[in-house]
Amino acid sequence: MDAYHKITIAKQFVTNSQVVGTVSDQPSAVVPDFITHGFIATNTIICTLSILLNGLIIRYYWSDRKRVVPFLFFTNACNDIFLSTGVILQTVALILYDGRPAKFFISFGYTTVGTGVRVSAFVNLLVCMVRAVNIIQPFYRVKRRHVTLSITVYTAFWTVVSFYDVIWFLNNVGFKGEEVYAIRSLVFKPEVGFAAVRGLTLSVGGDILVLFVLPFILPAFLLIVSSIIQVHKLIEGRMFDKTKKQLSPHTNFNNHAATTISLLSAIYTICNTTTVVIWTFTYWEILHHTTMKHIPWCQLALIYFSGTSIFQVASIISAVVIVVRGDSELSRYFIGFVTKLYRGKIKTTVTGQSC
Tell me, which fold does domain 3-19+31-330 have in CATH? Predict the structure, then answer.
């Protein structure tokens, strides 16, 4: 088999592009303008909000990061900013896309986003599980070094997997002359791990199951189980104290904390479920047939939203939940920051007018 046929097979594997029908069935080789403009505007707004809110959480929990739960909130905020950085790289790559996209922005954007999305689901799972352990075993405390080690290993694993995808893509497909494959495969349709399992002889449906469903559905399932355990134990505690006129401060604290964790779990469970539903719907033809048409750009945009943007939206909502339901000091800190920012803007405006 000559080099031309090897590259052709590689492109078909990466983009799932075994074509059915006529040439007119295939999507345009250029990203449509409405998708490009919507992509840039949406990512700019979401990234800005995510970085600001998570930056406040990082600053607030910095001094208390030695405790496990604050450390997890701190780590999750750092990861969300890391994810936003990757989305910014992808946005820059699309802005520069004129037939010759920058390798750096596409490659590192793919690695950053692919890793950040999966680590975000994992860290939120750890938050819920640690709270469940604290409620079930009040005198047992999860060690922070164990949590740190698990996050480090999980992050390193997906970083290596995603980076290997990029290396394989560069060696087998490349960017020069076929930039549309890079935009479609590494930006809009990030199947992290496609290169690692290409030798397992799995069906396309099996690839999606191993590379996509398990990293998202499994954490969502465990989040639901942990939340149910927390609620059950708290109900038992309330029934035990039902003879008292007022619940103890410890019980009130557990109820408040469990409600907050349950809200965060619900947010990421909804996101994970939405992602899997959209991907399954989009790949329905792949799961039941051996061949398929090129995925249209509109469906690719939907895949990108479900696999990347929705997790950034979740990070923004989660940050708001932490601020609103956090202790009064965190709320005052957030309100004070916004007040200073607002007053500074007013002062700048007045000064500009007086000049």
Answer: Rhopdopsin 7-helix transmembrane proteins (1.20.1070)
